[in-house]
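Recall the central idea of this unit: under ordinary conditions, the amino acid sequence of a chain determines the structure it adopts. In this exercise we apply that idea directly, starting from the sequence alone.
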Amino acid sequence: MMALRLLLLLALASGAASASCARTIDTTIQDAAITAAVQTALLNDTSVDGAKVDVRTSAGVVHLSGALASEDEASRVLAIVRSVDEVRGVESDLRTD
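Accordingly, the structure predicted from this sequence is:
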């Protein structure tokens, strides 16, 4: 985390390109926080097997993949993800066995 803060400070000090770079770093940090929040929510919900869901986030849009036991479980995963703060959208490649 300290390294990310240092990178952010360096980006802000670098002149004209600093605004673009700072937005990129800020987006990366926000995406990581969203991914962590989604993974935590999935792992804390006993009605789904959150360990079977791969979560990636890009610009606030959460991308899900993995194999789940049923359509009901996949629907529940989508509902959980949509309830997480800062999630701007959800793209699902979830499969059911």
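The helical segments are 2-12, 18-44, 71-82.
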